[in-house]
Amino acid sequence: MMKKLRRLLALVLTVAMILSITACGNGKEAETNTASTGSSSNADASAPAKDTLVVVTRSEATNLDPHNNTSLSSFMVERAIYDRLVDKDENGFIVPCAATEWEIVDDTTIRFHLRDDIYFHNGEKLTAEDVKYSIARAEKEAGSRTFFKFFDGANTEVIDDTTIDIKVYEPFAPVFNYLSSARGSIVCASAMESMGSDAYGRNPIGSGPLKFTEWVAGDHIELARNDDYWGDKVAYKDLIFRVIGEDASRAIELESGGADISLYIAQQDISSLESNPETEVISVPSYATVSVAFNSVKFDYLQDVRVRKALAMALDREGIVEAVYHGSATVADSVYSSVIPYHTSNEIVSYDPEAAKALLEEAGFDFSQPIKLVTMGSASAVAISEIVQNMWESIGLSVETSILDWAVFSQTMADPGLPVIILDSNASSGDPDHGFYNWTWTEAGVHNDPLITELLEKGKQTYKDDDRAKIYAELQEVCIDYYGLVPIAFTDSTFGIRSNVKGFIPDSGNVLDLTKIHFE
């Protein structure tokens, strides 16, 4: 079987990255779990061991049902609570989790072999029936179906308690990246059926290294170590996620020792944290891309490519990145992040306001036609919208800006639609198919080009690495020339940690694996 496995794995992008069988998110035999109460050489031997990890983030989880939210804050909590069939190690390679091995049966069938010693936090044993239930549910539920709509839950077949054939409707190259995401979490079928989605989302039952204990709305979520976990146990006793919306307050909490890890460190707080011997700042390029998107499908005045190109030419992208991010982002050179596979650098039209105005005149654009520019309420997005407004108004355009919360934003996107929006998109799975999500999001309306549609389908259906790379290289070039959106910035993921925190692994998707942390 192993010969067949090695031969077939070469056909699949992410499977080619499988290097060894390790535990889910805990498979490295590194420094992680050998010192759960570790102390430095200067520490007082009589001091009580630190056994609570406190993480501060800027927004609260929406719920902890992995198939019914799209929140990064939720994803990070879920990563600790649930197991998945496969996981990713710190280098982004696919490694075993609930599944110990797998083989490609055919282009639309993957057989997974499960561990026989996994138990949910309520004491029930995890079996292939729970996996089938989770796949079928993920295919249908609102928060996960963008990833799992290509999974065929109905025809996924349970062979026995530890063997399952997962089916996809068509060849689907992102399959392993999507299974390793928070949306690929395995839920307890009996508990979900008896509790219902709403109750389960507030009192989740997983099988992961930490188990849910408490949620105080607007304040914190608390997890406790699962001492019955099948894999390596976490080094601390409790994990607390606290919500602090203000950037400066998160930094102060870290410096004061009230938090061990802080997410979303603002640029203005970096120097203070770096100069403090008790704290350090870690930055990595993220999977996120910030863009100005044009809805050329619903709005007539944006359908002429010359108009979209002119609007792009009127934007000083380098100036925007420098003014807003101050070194915590780079100017985007493609439609998705440079750390996502198959990224290629593309030449994007240069800033030339006079040429932009001339091109608008050539296209017969009505300068009295107001351009409605919409964003959600993050500080960076609002700052970008203000700069974009000024740049477009400088060439004689009329621009109206508005800031919407997510509920209003998403509803208005669907009906009647939004003409121009600031998009901050995090392709947290790290798959290029996810990187093109905005080009498949019908409500965004960034294109109606059959060639783009064709290449998007080819990209997700092609398993061979070299072929997939060629498809995505062509697709990036075509999308840049279409001007459905103008990529502005590739942002960094920036974290602050206390100096006694060890085993921290930064994540480009801002969905940290906190199970390897220990203290010194």
Automatic annotation (TrEMBL):
Residues 1-25 form the signal peptide. It comes from Fusibacter paucivorans. Residues 94-440 form the Solute-binding protein family domain. Keywords: Signal, Transport. Pfam families: SBP_bac_5 (PF00496). Belongs to the bacterial solute-binding protein 5 family. This is ABC transporter substrate-binding protein.
